[in-house]
Amino acid sequence: MDAASYLKRQGWRGDGHSLDQTGRGISRPLLVSRKVDVLGVGLNKHAAVSDQWWMRAFDQGLKDLGTGKRTALADVREKGHLYGGLYGRFVKGDGVAGTFETPTPEDSGVEMPKAVIRKRKRDDQSTEK
After folding, report:
1. Which of 12, 78, 86, 88 has the fewest Cβ atoms within 10 angstroms?
2. Is 5 within the bounds of a domain?
3. Concatenated DSSP letters for the chain?
4. What is the tally of structural domains in the chain?
């Protein structure tokens, strides 16, 4: 199927003319650029390459090495997870009591008999002669 002949049958005037009847449309096709990187839609390629947070963190760690500065990570290491990190500001509350109670023999007033343990006879003993 030839697209140009089909459009001419529908009223198109040919190459160099728009598809609009009044001639106000664009006469050239839209150019579509292909995205070949895997950074995602809307992400700036330059920012993805230039924002090297791991390099800045490593450099900052090297600068602070041997200077005696205290970092937040060192405080968490010494004092534990209670004084820093994600859960550092949470306060532990009381525990919730269970809803089921286990009956005790004193509560019921009836003494429960102890289970009688009986050994079962083995099948191989009865088949022996």
Report:
1. 86
2. no
3. --HHHHHHHTT---TTS-SSTTS-S-SSPPP-----SSS-TT--HHHHHH--HHHHHHHHHHHHTTT----HHHHHHHH-GGGSSTTTT----PPPPPS-----HHHH-SPPPPPPP-PPPPHHHHH--
4. 1
- Which of 30, 29, 50 lies closest to 39 in space, CA to CA? 50
Average pLDDT, rounded, for the chain: 75
Whole-model pTM?
Answer: 0.24
Residues 23, 35: contact at Cβ < 8 Å? Answer: no
Which domain range does residue 52 map to?
47-89
Quick check: 72 and 60 in contact, CB under 8 A? Answer: no
Distances, alpha carbon 68 to alpha carbons 61, 74, 81, in Å: 12, 11, 22
Residues found in the chain:
129
Q: Is residue 67 part of a domain?
A: yes
Is 80 exceeded by the pLDDT of residue 123?
no
